[in-house]
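Listing S7. Sequence submitted for prediction.
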Amino acid sequence: MENKRDLLIVDDIDINRIIIAELFSDNYNILEAENGEEALKIINSEKYDFSIILLDLEMPIVDGLGVLRNMKETGKINHIPVVLITSDDDDKNALESYGLGVSDVVHKPFNSSIVLQRVQNVIDLYAYKNHLEKTLLKQKQELIAQGERIKRMNFSLIDTLSATVEFRNVESGKHIMRTRLLIKVILESIRDKYSFTDEQLELISSAAALHDVGKIAIPDAILLKPGKLTEEEFEIMKEHTVKGSEILETLDLLKDKEYYQYCYDICRHHHERWDGAGYPDGLVGFEIPIWAQAASLVDVYDALTSKRVYKDAYSHEQAIDMILNGECGVFNPDILKILWDDAEILKSLAEKIATEEKNS
């Protein structure tokens, strides 16, 4: 008995239930209900593992359509097949029943052999459907778990590469960490316009940490020079954008993730300018991905407000004025407005980071 699945017969006439039960009793654990109310108590009890429900339409208290409506509302019709066995020949009721999810309709009087086969066909079909849904759900969960593992590995890889850049470029201090935090402020302000999700904001801010990874390939004599670069040296320094994107292209792990594109765009294009005067590709306007535009602005702001061996740090107010006055190149007017609107937020965050750096 334990190996049999449950079959529910719902009919207000005793003899009908007896006849149907006799057909299926060898292979199923038979449950019976003489009206829809009793049937719903059994169905919603969660005690049974139903293979199928054989349902009459015309019953007292709650009729067959009432049972079907309840099963549709609770979602049980998606997992438990229902076959109508009824003398009702109203096409309207049959049409509504199919609309509520009934798998088949058998009219009384019926041929026992045909009923057995039609019911078994429905059971087999639902069993396959439920198995397929469970398999797909398991595969989806495995893919999600795999995606989370890859995301963690990517973040770890990015942190390692970022730390390597900071180790070489000792003057930058916590520049990479500040860039990651400050860009989130800009992104939050444009998220509605560009329909960024929370996950995208997280990915882009993480990708921003790799904007200077190409500096790994810049000679120490230029990267660590305690003074202004010559024109020739500056041309070599500019290559860090291309070198960085070339490094990313070799990282197969990153290519498996959505934010590979964010990493690549920010790494290669964070020195492009709105008017096309930037490098390395001379992109103009919205040819520059919006996340690269945001990273570019944050990079400039942090560079201005940070101390270097060749300059003292500018104040927050000075840095904002210099950017707005075009002294650091031309930026997207919308991004500049956000800089102005969020100036106090950026200042507070920058001061908080500076305090934490001193105390660390």
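Caption to Listing S7: primary sequence and predicted structure tokens for the chain studied. The CA atoms of residues 178 and 350 lie 7 Å apart. The radius of gyration is 34 Å.
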